[in-house]
Write a structure and sequence with these properties.
The complex is a heterodimer of chains A (313) and B (139). The longest helix of chain A is centred in the middle third of the chain and has 28 residues. The radius of gyration of chain A is 19 Å and the shape is globular. Chain A is mainly α and 313 residues long. In chain A, 73% of the residues lie in helices and 4% in strands. In chain B, 33% of the residues are buried. In chain B, helix 1 runs antiparallel to helix 3 and helix 3 packs antiparallel against helix 4. Classes of the chains: A mainly alpha (313), B mainly alpha (139). At the A-B interface, helix 4, helix 5, strand 1, strand 2 and helix 10 of A face helix 1, helix 2, helix 3 and helix 4 of B.
């Protein structure tokens, strides 16, 4: 039974992404009209949106390796678009998450400050490295994506972590809150600890977001939940919301440098937003773990392809 | 026994949510409208649509040299070009968080939350800095 579900979703996912995978390679060989690649990109991002939501993975982390490995667009434009995809998805999700008190402004403000500052540094570093040789970015993206795959496979979130005493920073910013657990109707009061260690983690999150144009939601959740001890629902929602803050500094830099091509960015943003809406409606009907494993598989494949592309294979 | 009365969400959270909701919708509308003007040819672009495949695989510097595409805030004066018009919507979306932080800053200031005023002020500084295009890198 499990195998057949796995096979069904696996084949579906690969068949949906197959146009970009099959047409990968030297684009000069394909005599396609100008609208061909943007149309394939639109459908690919639509399905990234559907499966990203069902797998609990942000769109940016799937988009950048897939689009830079299997599409003809230069990695500079792909990274610019990746940031706007993450920004757009986060802005769309934020109002609901904040209204429901699942995303916490008090938790997001200090973490996003650290991440967005380093995202700015990362954006300059990424554009500088890419100008030296795009293979540096493509190769390190491949390695990063493969590391992310392993983090996703082995990091197990904790629903309600035990939180010991918060430190000075926790007290200073009063990082705590209350939310209503919908399954039980109970009010859950939460706070965090190890805030300094968490903030150091956001330095890396910010750098990666800026260098590669990744949303970095996968890392936010791990830091907020596993290191700082926020309940998993708060960690996931705050991560989704905080991306709109983290990515905005880097997004401006890519835009100012001319690395935002509307013909890539607009279809991708619209595609992923529509897909995410459908995905959230399908969510109750599917097994998230099965989808998550499938998406991790595609991510691994894209990471390897990115690495191969860096070596000209 | 832990003092649970201290647990509360920021009172500005709902206001922040409302600002994001409305400005995001405005941004999306402007983005799609600008893109429609581009695709339908109502506004002619710097680079004709059929020539785009020759350019989108080029490294950024080469692309900018060959297409004369705008950088920094030049796009404001070139909004009549089809491939620049969608940048207005993109800029609105990139400014949503900046606007929210401006509102937050004054809200925190009003209620005397010094540490939060400091955080929002530093964040605003970095947002304005990145949006200003004042920082340049040389290769």
């Amino acid at each position: 039974m499990k195998r057949s579900i796995l096979f069904k979703y696996g084949s579906l996912l690969f068949s949906l992404l197959s146009p970009s995978i099959l047409l990968a390679g030297s684009t000069a060989e394909f005599d396609m009209p100008w609208w061909g690649w943007p149309t394939i990109l639109f459908f690919t991002t639509f399905f990234i949106g559907v499966f990203g939501v069902m797998a609990g993975i942000g769109g940016g982390v799937l988009f950048v390796p897939l689009a830079s490995s299997f599409f003809p667009f230069h990695i500079d434009f792909v990274r610019g678009t990746g940031l706007f995809i993450a920004l757009g998805s986060s802005l769309a999700a934020a109002p609901h998450l904040l209204e429901k008190n699942l995303a916490s402004l008090k938790l997001a403000l200090p973490s996003a400050l650290v991440a967005s500052t380093f995202a700015m540094v990362g954006a300059f570093l990424g554009l500088w490295l890419s100008a030296l040789n795009p293979a540096y970015i493509q190769g390190s993206l491949g390695v990063t994506i493969i590391v992310i795959v392993f983090i996703m496979l082995f990091a197990k979130n904790s629903e309600h972590p035990d939180v010991t005493h918060g430190n000075y920073l926790t007290e200073l910013f009063q990082i705590n809150g209350i939310y209503t657990e919908e399954t039980t109707g109970k009010e859950v009061r939460w706070t965090v600890h190890k805030t300094t260690r968490g903030m150091l983690g956001f330095v890396i999150v910010g750098l990666l977001a800026g260098i590669f144009g990744l949303g970095a939601g996968w890392a936010n959740v791990a830091i907020l939940n596993l290191i700082m001890g926020a309940p998993v629902k708060i960690a996931v929602a705050t991560s989704s919301f905080a991306l709109s803050i983290t990515d905005s500094t880097a997004a401006w830099i890519y835009m100012n440098k001319g690395a935002v091509l509307p013909i890539l960015t607009v279809p991708s943003m619209v595609g992923i937003m529509l897909g995410a809406k459908i995905g959230s409606k399908l969510l109750p009907k599917v097994k998230p773990t099965v989808i998550r494993n499938m998406v991790i598989g595609v991510l691994f494949f894209a990471g390897v392809r990115s690495l191969m592309k860096a070596f000209g294979i | 026994m832990e003092d649970t009365s201290a647990f509360e969400n920021a009172s500005e959270q709902k206001l922040y949510a409302r600002i994001v909701y409305h400005t995001n919708h405005v941004g999306l509308f402007v983005l799609v409208a600008g893109f429609a003007l581009y695709l339908t040819g109502v506004l002619s672009p710097h680079v004709p649509l059929e020539d785009l495949p020759q350019y989108w695989s080029l490294p950024l510097n080469e692309y900018l040299e060959k297409t004369d595409a705008p950088t920094g805030w030049q796009w404001i004066s070139e909004l009549s070009y089809g491939d620049v018009a969608p940048l207005l919507g993109i800029a609105v979306l990139a400014s949503v968080t900046l606007l929210c932080y401006l509102v937050l800053f004054f809200q925190f200031l009003q209620r005397g939350a010094k540490s939060l005023v400091a955080i929002t002020a530093i964040e605003l500084f970095f947002m304005f800095l990145s949006a200003s295009n004042l920082i340049q890198i040389s290769h």
